[in-house]
């Protein structure tokens, strides 16, 4: 069984192809009030760990590997923490993105710290939602598409409705990789209520149909073709997760939506 720490390390690997086979059915769960958090709070030992992370991240990248190790520890501590400690963890992780990591022109960005923090925050909802939405599209991180991609995926993993507007807005982003990430993240809402799933489904379907239409009417336009090739598979996969139905062609999805937009998708589940 994977620990949270191992999950953090594995999550930093490139995501599997979104064009994988049909997804397992997901049962929608009715929204419930969260149970009171009985875990201990304001723990001195956690404050010490947070202080270590703060020290590492301020060393201009020289101790980023150590910082990632502390983030791993915080990821394991989060489920055992009380509400105030959880807020403190998320707040300290947010400070990671405030740091600057300079690299010579032409070299890959030094973003290990940012990626680790982004992955961890995906496992810390709902407390992490505000931090994630703050850093998605933030000026100092906007050009680092790998970090933006991971922030978007992590926002989806929180499965919090407060993140939906940002994720749907990202479907209009000029970067195909971020549209793809948003499509994948929106598939995480497969357990949401039916009204929410239909709203997300419609936004995704609109995005893929517009891209397909532009590609089909401009067969020599490589930009249009590249966009469709990047975003179609994750959108189609998420459409299946949200609806519990399977199609692989966008036009068939459009026909299905026209017939079933008012239907109860959970009736036979």
Summarize the topology.
Layout: H1 4-11, H2 44-57, H3 64-77, H4 83-96, H5 112-121, H6 129-135, H7 145-158, H8 164-169, H9 176-186, H10 194-217, H11 222-243, H12 250-260
Helix pairs in contact: 1-3, 2-3, 2-4, 3-5, 4-5, 5-7, 6-7, 7-9, 9-11, 10-11, 10-12
Rg calculated over all Cα atoms: 20 Å
DSSP strand (E) fraction? under 5%
Number of extended strands:
0
The helical percent reads 55-70%
Question: Looking at the chains present, what oligomeric state does this protein adopt?
Answer: single chain
Number of domains: 2
Strand count, sense and barrel status of the largest sheet are: none
Summing up helix and strand content along with how strands pair, one would put the structural category as mainly alpha
Low-confidence stretches: 13-31
Distance between the termini: 29 Å
H and E string: HHHHHHHHHHHH
Question: So what's the overall shape?
Answer: flat
Average residue pLDDT:
89
- Our count of helices gives 12
Question: How would you characterize the overall build of this protein?
Answer:
With 269 residues, the chain is mainly alpha-helical. The protein folds into 2 domains: 41-158; 177-269, no CATH class. The protein is 58% helix and 0% strand. The protein contains 12 helices and no strands. It has helices at residues 4-11, 44-57, 64-77, 83-96, 112-121, 129-135, 145-158, 164-169, 176-186, 194-217, 222-243, 250-260. Helix 2 runs parallel beside helix 4, helix 5 (112-121) packs parallel to helix 7 and helix 10 packs antiparallel against helix 11 (222-243). The longest helix has 24 residues, at 194-217. The two termini are 29 Å apart. 37% of the residues are buried. Residues 13-31 have low confidence and may be disordered.
């Amino acid at each position: 069984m994977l620990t949270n720490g191992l999950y953090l390390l594995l999550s930093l690997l490139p995501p599997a192809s979104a064009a994988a086979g049909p997804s397992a059915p997901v049962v929608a769960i009715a929204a419930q009030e969260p149970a009171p958090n009985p875990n201990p709070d304001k723990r001195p030992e956690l404050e010490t760990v947070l202080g270590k992370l703060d020290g590492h991240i301020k060393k201009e990248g020289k101790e980023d590997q150590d910082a990632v190790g502390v983030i791993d520890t915080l990821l394991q501590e989060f489920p055992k923490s009380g509400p105030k400690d959880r807020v403190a963890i998320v707040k300290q992780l947010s400070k990671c993105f405030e740091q600057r990591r300079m690299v010579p022109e032409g070299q890959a960005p030094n973003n290990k710290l940012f990626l680790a923090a982004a992955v961890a925050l995906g496992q810390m909802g709902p407390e992490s939602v505000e931090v994630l939405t703050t850093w998605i599209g933030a000026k100092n991180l906007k050009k680092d598409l790998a970090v933006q991609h991971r922030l978007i995926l992590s926002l989806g993993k929180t499965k919090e409705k407060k993140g939906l507007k940002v994720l749907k807005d990202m479907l209009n982003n000029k970067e195909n990789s971020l549209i793809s990430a948003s499509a994948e993240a929106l598939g995480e809402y497969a357990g949401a209520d039916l009204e929410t799933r239909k709203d997300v489904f419609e936004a995704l379907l609109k995005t893929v149909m517009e891209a397909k239409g532009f590609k089909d009417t401009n067969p020599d336009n490589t930009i249009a073709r590249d966009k469709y090739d990047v975003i179609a598979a994750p959108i189609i996969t998420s459409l299946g997760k949200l609806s519990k139905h399977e199609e692989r062609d966008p036009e068939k999805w459009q026909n299905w939506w026209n017939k079933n937009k008012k239907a109860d998708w959970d009736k036979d589940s």
